[in-house]
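User: quick one, sequence for these tokens?
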């Protein structure tokens, strides 16, 4: 009987943990659909401009190749950003206290641009 009670407790714990876990989102986001639609629109627009402009076939192929390359690069960047956690989106500044150093009087680069008022009063 103890085994069945322990299994019942385990089942309740598992159900509670499953309730805490957020449900899975759909694998295709609205942003991805909009992005792919925009990229398809760019390719179609380049093809229409090249066709309506009666460009040479070599120029049309070059334009379509450049547009396709731009789409491939944007998809690569979008896929790459999907694996970066949001916490790494912005670099966190690490403040390190620098050791206190005194300016050397012989080093012109370390002297302040404007002389201190104390040195002017002492003259």
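Assistant:
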């Amino acid at each position: 009987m103890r085994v069945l009670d322990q299994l019942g407790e385990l089942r309740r714990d598992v159900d509670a943990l499953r309730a805490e876990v957020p449900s899975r989102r759909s694998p295709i986001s609205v942003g991805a659909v909009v992005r792919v639609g925009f990229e398809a629109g760019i390719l179609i627009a380049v093809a229409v401009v090249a066709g309506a402009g009666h460009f040479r076939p070599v120029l049309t192929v070059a334009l379509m190749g450049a547009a396709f390359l731009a789409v491939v690069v944007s998809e690569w960047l979008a896929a790459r950003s999907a694996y970066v956690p949001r916490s790494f989106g912005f670099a966190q500044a690490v403040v390190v206290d620098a050791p206190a150093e005194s300016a050397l009087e012989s080093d012109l680069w370390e002297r302040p641009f404007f002389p201190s008022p104390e040195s002017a009063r002492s003259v």
